[in-house]
Specification:
This protein is α/β, with parallel strands linked by helices and about 230 residues long. Helices cover about 40% and strands about 25% of the residues. Bound molecules: adenosine-5'-diphosphate and magnesium ion.
Length: about 230
């Protein structure tokens, strides 16, 4: 059984429909990427998994339906979320932002915090700094760190590279890879940055105006002429 099953998922903001019958799975231990341009529905997909959007269809975590539960229950069931542009508490310190993530996994707080500091040593050095004064890259690290504080089985990362330099992007990529390889963490990321997605993921899905258009391994997609034209300029 896949860890996450998205089955015929549609998403609605009032009468506007932002996802149309989207289906795909994320296997245990996989890194799966959903790529798409602005407005494709990437954040809507993530927010749907977190119980923040009105949906039809099914979202199952290890066979158990998530639709209808609120975000805190979904976090408790093992989904950690690093939302787009981090959404931190700007006037709280790095450490306090991380600790907020730990409230659903109180028994693991000490161990999780030590692990986040090991993954992102800069967050230990900057523990008492307000996140408002941090660089975009460090804020993204806090965001991933905060999601890890919830002891997730599945980590959702929405556009982690937005606005970041290539150097910081590769640091984030290396850390996500390490979490996957060393901790066996299953990861679903969304990206506009195709190269980043292709370098990390075992399977990639292309989302266009709320429809999943193409799916495959990075190798298969790299060989796809239509995709190359659309995203790599031919
Ligand atoms: N809160 C909202 N209310 C109404 N429409 C929304 C809302 N959030 C997103 N949308 C619409 O849903 C579509 C997908 O948006 P989004 O999921 O944010 O795309 P992406 O993350 O891929 O840029 C867009 O047409 C967007 O305008
Ligand atoms: Mg988005």
């Amino acid at each position: 059984m896949a860890l996450l099953e998205i089955d015929n998922l549609s998403a609605f903001y009032g009468r506007a429909q932002s996802l149309h019958n989207v289906s795909f799975n994320v296997g245990k231990g996989e890194i799966v990427a959903v790529i798409g341009t602005n407005g494709a529905g990437k954040s809507t997909l993530m927010d749907s998994i977190m119980g923040m959007v009105k949906n039809t269809g099914a979202i199952r975590l290890e066979g158990q339906d998530l639709i209808g539960f609120d975000s805190s229950e979904i976090v408790k069931r093992g989904v950690g979320y690093a939302p787009e542009r981090a959404h931190l508490f700007p006037f709280m310190t790095v450490e306090d932002n991380l600790l907020v993530g730990g409230y659903t996994a109180r028994d693991d707080i000490g161990r999780n915090l030590a692990h986040v500091h090991e993954l992102f040593p800069v967050l230990k050095q900057r523990a008492t700094q307000e996140t408002a004064t941090q660089s975009g890259g460090e804020r993204q690290m806090v965001s991933v760190g905060r999601a890890l504080m919830t002891s997730p089985r599945l980590l959702l990362v929405d556009e982690p590279t937005i606005g970041l330099s290539p150097k910081v992007c590769s640091e984030i990529a290396a850390t996500l890879k390490r979490l996957n390889e060393e901790d066996g963490l299953t990861i679903l990321i969304t990206e506009q940055n195709i190269n980043f997605a292709m370098s990390l993921a075992t399977r990639v899905h292309v989302l266009e105006t709320g429809h999943l258009r193409i799916s495959g391994t990075p190798q298969e997609l790299a060989a796809d002429d239509a995709l190359n034209k659309a995203y790599f300029g031919g």
